[in-house]
Amino acid sequence: MRRRVLIVDDHVGFRGRARQLLESEGYDVVGEAQDGTTALAEAARLGPDIVLLDVQLPDLDGFEVARLLMARGVFAAVILISGRDRAEYGDQIEASPALGFLPKSELSAAAIDALLLGMS
């Protein structure tokens, strides 16, 4: 079964690269969003299995979007991503309801699969 992914990032170039990478590795990218508000609407509408969520968005940060997704009953596996290092976010990653964190430079189906495997 192909996992359905929503990609949330304010950089259109990154969204395109992530889509191409994930689709080539067997994922079904069902949508994209450029900010937190759109991400919330698209996640509710599309019902993805996974939300690939940038921490730095122009309106809401990824931590807030992850909290709101859970509060609104969207039970997708949220994976936070960033071009910045994990250490820059301190305890915010562990305190969030997100499944985990991936640096954008390490994005791959294998890295997502490893996080999902740790969930089960």
Tell me about this structure:
- This protein has helices spanning 12-24, 36-46, 62-71, 92-95, 109-119; strands at 4-8, 28-33, 50-54, 77-82, 100-103.
- With 120 residues, the protein is of the alpha/beta class.
- The protein has a single domain (4-119), classed as Response regulator (Rossmann fold, 3-Layer(aba) Sandwich), CATH 3.40.50.
- The chain has a five-stranded parallel β-sheet with strand order 2-1-3-4-5, sandwiched between helices.
- Helix 3 (62-71) links the parallel strand 3 and strand 4 (77-82).
- The protein starts with a strand and ends with a helix.
- The model has no long low-confidence stretch (mean pLDDT 95).
What are the main properties of this structure?
120 residues, alpha/beta, Rossmann fold, 5 helices, 22% strand, globular
Q: What is the gist of this entry?
A:
The protein has a five-stranded parallel sheet, sandwiched between helices. Helix content is 41%, strand content 22%. The model has no long low-confidence stretch (mean pLDDT 95).
Largest sheet: 5 strands, parallel
Could you tell me the radius of gyration in angstroms? 13 Å
Q: Could you list the spans in which at least 5 consecutive residues all have pLDDT below 50? A: none
* CATH architecture classification: 3-Layer(aba) Sandwich
Task: Give the number of DSSP strands.
Answer: 5
Largest sheet, order of strands side by side?
2-1-3-4-5
SSE-based structural type: alpha/beta
CATH superfamily: Response regulator
* Relative helix content: 40-55%
Shape: globular
Number of DSSP helices?
Answer: 5
How many domains? The number is 1
> What percent strand?
15-25%
Briefly note the CATH topology name: Rossmann fold
**What is the terminal separation in angstroms?**
16 Å
> Which class in CATH terms?
Alpha Beta
**Mean pLDDT over the residues:** 95
User: What is the H/E string?
Assistant: EHEHEHEHEH
